[in-house]
């Protein structure tokens, strides 16, 4: 039955990582408030979501709009050199592909997928003439590798979908050059009894393909023997127990706040049996009491009707107490909450240190401007992790672009790219074979922009060391402040204005004689 529904161990392992990432890891467990089940077996009512939070911080640190690398087409690479015109045409085409495919957002999704489950499968396609980049769930894919462990010989995609008749069907697509085939759906129940011979299943769609337009990436694969496994390693892999312990501790802290945050009213000098009607009674517990009611039954067992009510506390309710009796609020010291808070802090530190993540508290950072140097030192472990991701996924970014360009170059039909015609000659020269040309160069910037105090201090120090002489040209100075002041980096107009002002001053000082 499991085989019919989904279902290899690899499938369920990846699904567990997805559930941990999206907060569904504890689905199917008893409620946290179910006292009939031991505490450790219940589902936490509060989840830290530390995996997704840490993954998003890393993703935006590497591929955020400000951090996204600048792309450049190299003139010199394997496969011959490009002249200036061809290089410009290729650069314009790369910029258009980046814009039309929303590559920045796609790369954030790709990195997030690698951090989430450890494996990324990107399918590059032309859908009715439009270039498309699709992320295919790795648990639905089975790649076939060549002897070198890297070149993809084929890719099988199997999805199980529920049809209108209420039955589960297997949809299979097989990309194996020279064919790209889509098979007719097959009932999943049939696969439970006997293996499916797909050679006997009708093909409902077929297209020629010279290569597999898919990229299979193992996240954080070991550099030694890293190609022996199909999948990589997720960000939270191996930390499931620690994250579960932290979620349970957070849930206990929440329960402690519920119990101690609302003080308990007690009465002294009152017979609980004879004077039960001295104060107004609240809601009577139902006959089908739940776990939360059972926890307080021992306290409220003397309420009216014996069902477990509670006294109503309200300014409109008058309590009639016998002479000599008293009513007060009973509050706890909160020592248990302090212990739990320390436990949560230690578990959070263990998990984040294992992930090489720094989640800085805004209150600790303060409201003032922080220098780039201070932020770099504070987040050094996370920046070291981001450096590795820049190398790993920067190479993947170049591979995605080159795969898209290779697909465009090998497609004789219509492709909706305005800059394609001007770059067809360069594309034919670069991608005349299936071997990657590696012409896409990436230029990464700094993680943090320097503050104005740092810029001023650096300029002052440089001028002092240079005898207070200018250290930059007008163009270099304007380029420095252009991003901060939203100015154009073009200095031609400014230089013309300065030249006109100097000519006017010369005429005034020199008179008609010059």
Structural class: alpha+beta
Distance between the termini: 100 Å
Describe the sheet with the most strands.
6 strands, antiparallel
General shape: flat
Number of helices: 17
Kindly report the average pLDDT value: 79
Radius of gyration: 34 Å
DSSP summary, beta strand count: 15
- Give the proportion of residues in helices: 40-55%
Estimated share of beta-strand residues: 15-25%
Q: Uncertain regions: pLDDT < 50 for 5+ in a row?
A: 284-289, 294-308
Please tell me about this protein's structure.
Helix content is 43%, strand content 16%. α7 runs antiparallel to α10 (335-355). The model is unreliable at 284-289 and 294-308 (pLDDT under 50). It has 514 residues and is of the alpha+beta class. It has helices at 2-5, 9-22, 50-63, 84-100, 103-117, 188-193, 240-261, 291-295, 297-300, 335-355, 362-365, 372-378, 380-409, 420-430, 452-465, 474-485, 492-510, and strands at residues 70-73, 76-77, 80-81, 119-127, 130-135, 141-145, 152-162, 168-176, 179-183, 186-187, 203-208, 214-218, 264-268, 326-330, 440-443. It is flat and about 105 Å long. A hairpin with a 2-residue loop joins β2 (76-77) and β3.
Keywords:
16% strand, 17 helices, three-stranded antiparallel sheet, six-stranded antiparallel sheet, 514 residues, alpha+beta
Secondary structure elements and their pairing?
Elements: H1 2-5, H2 9-22, H3 50-63, E1 70-73, E2 76-77, E3 80-81, H4 84-100, H5 103-117, E4 119-127, E5 130-135, E6 141-145, E7 152-162, E8 168-176, E9 179-183, E10 186-187, H6 188-193, E11 203-208, E12 214-218, H7 240-261, E13 264-268, H8 291-295, H9 297-300, E14 326-330, H10 335-355, H11 362-365, H12 372-378, H13 380-409, H14 420-430, E15 440-443, H15 452-465, H16 474-485, H17 492-510
Antiparallel strand pairs: 1-15, 2-3, 4-5, 4-12, 6-7, 7-8, 8-9, 8-10, 9-11, 13-14
Helix pairs in contact: 3-5, 4-14, 7-10
């Amino acid at each position: 039955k499991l085989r019919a529904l989904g279902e290899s161990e690899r499938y369920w392992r990846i699904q567990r990582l997805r559930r941990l990432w999206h907060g569904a890891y504890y689905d199917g467990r008893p409620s946290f408030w179910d006292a009939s089940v031991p505490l450790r077996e219940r589902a936490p009512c509060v989840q830290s979501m530390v995996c997704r939070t840490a993954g998003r911080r890393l993703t935006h640190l590497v591929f955020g709009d400000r951090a996204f690398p600048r792309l450049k087409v190299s003139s010199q690479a394997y496969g011959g050199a490009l002249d200036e015109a061809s290089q410009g045409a290729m650069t314009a085409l790369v910029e258009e592909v980046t814009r039309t495919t929303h590559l920045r957002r796609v790369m954030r999704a790709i990195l997030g997928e690698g951090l989430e489950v450890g494996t990324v499968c990107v399918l590059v396609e032309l859908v009715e003439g439009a270039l498309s980049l699709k992320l295919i769930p790795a648990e639905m894919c089975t790649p076939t590798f060549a002897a070198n462990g890297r070149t993809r010989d084929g890719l099988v995609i199997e999805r199980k979908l529920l049809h209108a008749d209420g039955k589960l069907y297997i949809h299979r697509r097989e990309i194996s050059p020279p064919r790209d085939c889509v098979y007719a759906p097959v009932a999943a129940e049939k696969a439970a009894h006997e293996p499916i011979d797909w050679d006997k299943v009708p093909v409902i769609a077929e297209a020629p393909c010279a290569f597999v337009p898919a990229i299979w990436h193992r996240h954080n694969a070991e550099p030694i023997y890293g190609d022996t496994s199909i999948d990589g390693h997720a960000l939270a892999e191996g930390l499931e127990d620690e994250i579960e312990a932290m979620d349970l501790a957070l849930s206990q802290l929440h329960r402690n706040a519920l119990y101690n945050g609302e003080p308990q009213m007690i009465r002294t000098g009152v017979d609980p049996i004879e004077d039960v009607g001295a104060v107004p009674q609240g809601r009577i517990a139902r006959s089908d009491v739940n776990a939360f009611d059972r926890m307080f039954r021992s306290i409220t067992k003397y309420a009216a009707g014996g069902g477990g009510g509670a006294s109503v506390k309200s300014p409109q309710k008058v309590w009639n107490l016998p002479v000599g009796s008293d009513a007060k609020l009973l509050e706890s010291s909160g020592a248990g909450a302090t212990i739990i808070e320390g436990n949560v802090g230690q578990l959070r530190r263990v998990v984040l240190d294992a992930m090489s993540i720094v989640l800085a508290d805004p209150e600790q950072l303060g409201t003032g401007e922080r220098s780039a140097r201070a932020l770099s030192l504070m987040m050094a472990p996370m920046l070291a992790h981001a450096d590795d991701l820049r190398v790993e996924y920067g190479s993947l970014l170049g591979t995605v672009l080159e795969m898209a360009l290779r697909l465009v170059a090998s497609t004789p039909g219509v492709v909706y790219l305005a800059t394609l015609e001007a770059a067809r000659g360069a594309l034919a020269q670069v991608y005349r074979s299936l071997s990657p040309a590696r012409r896409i160069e990436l230029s990464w910037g700094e993680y943090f922009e320097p503050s104005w105090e740092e810029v001023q201090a650096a300029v002052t120090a440089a001028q002092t060391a240079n005898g207070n002489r200018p250290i930059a040209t007008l163009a270099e100075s304007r380029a420095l402040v252009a991003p901060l002041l939203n100015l154009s980096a073009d200095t031609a107009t400014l230089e013309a204005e300065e030249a006109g002002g100097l000519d006017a001053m010369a005429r005034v000082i020199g008179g008609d004689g010059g």
